[in-house]
Specification:
Elements lengths: L3 H8 L5 E12 L2 E13 L4 E5 L6 H9 L6 E6 L2 E2 L7 E4 L11 H11 L4 H14 L15 H13 L5 E5 L7 H18 L2 E6 L2 H7 L2 E6 L4 E7 L14 H24 L1
Helix pairs in contact: 3-4, 3-5, 7-8
């Protein structure tokens, strides 16, 4: 029987991320548009990082390059000493919009990647049920996506990505569509799972408090073209809960990040 505990014992050996001089340009109406310019960042296995910045600064583009969906114009992404050249099972992706297959049950959606990889049925069942139990979805395992709430669907999307033991989990504003109470519950749930698995996470958000609450590192992005304006180390004690928002350290960090974001947002507004 393979369980979450078995996976966590080896997970921290994977997930070393290096982005070196990454630039991305697109052609638009005969003109070259520079989206990202000279992005450099490094994450150790098991770190939780957030990309934060104004709309249009290229946060999601970075995720898509790491995922292998977009090829860089120059520079490279290296994961565990292997250069990314396309999509791969070593990277899981959780989108903002719920992406469950509507004709499959919750169990079948979570199981899908394991089935494609040829994992034996008995092992798939044990592992998927373990994840479903952890996120409170076991009793909904036979339900279809339209029968689940938004929070339930996103829980299923997250464990569907994690059940395949990716080296890196990429998350593009996964909680943006949820109400405030559900969003905070999902943040705490994500940190609970991450504390066991220690998968390297790169999380895109517009929410300053969300970034401070979740992260080990925050990369604040500049605008036009997208660049890394600042790296902020978050040393708040873990585990973190709702009360963390009230601590002086949390408030100080949030103000620091706010001022950096405000500068870039004012620049972006001036260009429109």
């Amino acid at each position: 029987m393979t369980t979450l505990a078995d996976i966590s014992s080896v997970q921290t050996l994977k997930g070393f991320v290096e982005i070196e001089n990454l630039s991305v340009s697109f052609q638009r109406k005969g003109h070259t548009v520079q989206v990202l310019d000279s992005i450099n960042l490094q994450l150790r296995p098991g770190e939780f990082a957030c990309l934060l910045g104004p709309s249009g600064c290229g946060k999601s583009t970075i995720l898509n390059v790491i995922a292998g969906f977009i090829k860089p114009t120059s520079g490279c992404v290296v994961i565990d000493k292997q250069q990314v050249s396309g999509p791969g099972a070593d990277r899981g992706f959780v989108f903002q919009q719920y992406s469950l297959l509507p004709w499959k049950t919750t169990f079948e959606n979570v199981e899908f990647g394991l089935k494609i990889r040829g994992v034996p049925k008995s092992e798939r069942q044990e592992l998927v049920n373990d994840y479903l139990n952890r996120v409170g979805l076991y009793k909904h395992r036979h339900s279809y996506p339209h029968q689940l709430s938004g929070g339930m669907q996103q829980r299923a999307s997250i464990i569907r990505a994690l059940v395949n033991s990716p080296s890196v989990l990429l998350m593009d504003e996964p909680f943006a569509a949820l109400d405030a109470q559900t969003r905070q519950m999902m943040r705490e749930l994500l940190l609970s799972i991450w504390s066991h698995l220690k998968t390297t996470v790169i999380f895109v958000t517009h929410d300053i408090e969300e970034a401070v609450f979740l992260s080990d590192k925050i990369f604040v992005m500049g605008f036009n073209p997208g660049n890394i304006k600042a790296k902020i180390d978050v040393s708040l004690e873990r585990p973190r809960h709702t009360d963390s928002f009230l601590s002086p350290e949390f408030i100080t960090l949030s103000r620091q990040v706010f001022e950096l974001i405000r500068e870039e947002t004012l620049k972006s507004m001036a260009l429109n």
